[in-house]
Amino acid sequence: CEIGRGSEGTVLVWGSGKHGELGLGEVQHSPFPRPLPGLREVSIRQLAAGQRHVLAVDVQGLLFSWGCGASGRLGHGDVQDRREPALVQFFAASLRVDL
């Protein structure tokens, strides 16, 4: 999975989506950049892509994650894959994140 930003701050994803890491709601591959609808209303400050998962931090310091959830790597307290960006509740209550 590859991630980037469009000219207006839109989060773009492309490449392999075998584990949901494209965040487009279904397992797929995309040979070209596509806007990520799940973060359309969120102002993202930082992005980071692992081999099978993606993290995004918004301007308020809230953490979103999606992709392969093996070994709890997404931070949601389980090992489930997420096929769309999901807020990591642990940080939403009081902590803020900086990648």
Describe this structure as you would to a colleague:
There is one protein chain. The protein has one helix at 89-92; strands spanning 2-5, 11-17, 28-35, 44-49, 53-58, 63-67, 82-87. The radius of gyration is 12 Å and the shape is globular. A hairpin with a 4-residue loop joins strand 5 (53-58) and strand 6. The chain has a four-stranded antiparallel β-sheet. Strands 1-2-3 form a three-stranded antiparallel β-sheet, with no helix packed on it. With 99 residues, it is mainly β. 4% of the residues lie in helices and 42% in strands. The mean pLDDT is 90. It is built from one helix and seven strands; from the N terminus they run E-E-E-E-E-E-E-H.
Biggest β-sheet description: 4 strands, antiparallel
Write down the secondary-structure element order.
EEEEEEEH
In which order are the strands of the major sheet placed? 4-5-6-7
Strand content: 35-45%
Give short descriptive properties of this protein:
three-stranded antiparallel beta sheet; single chain; 99 residues; mainly beta; four-stranded antiparallel beta sheet
Short description:
The protein has one helix and seven strands; from the N terminus they run βββββββα. By secondary structure, it is mostly beta strands.
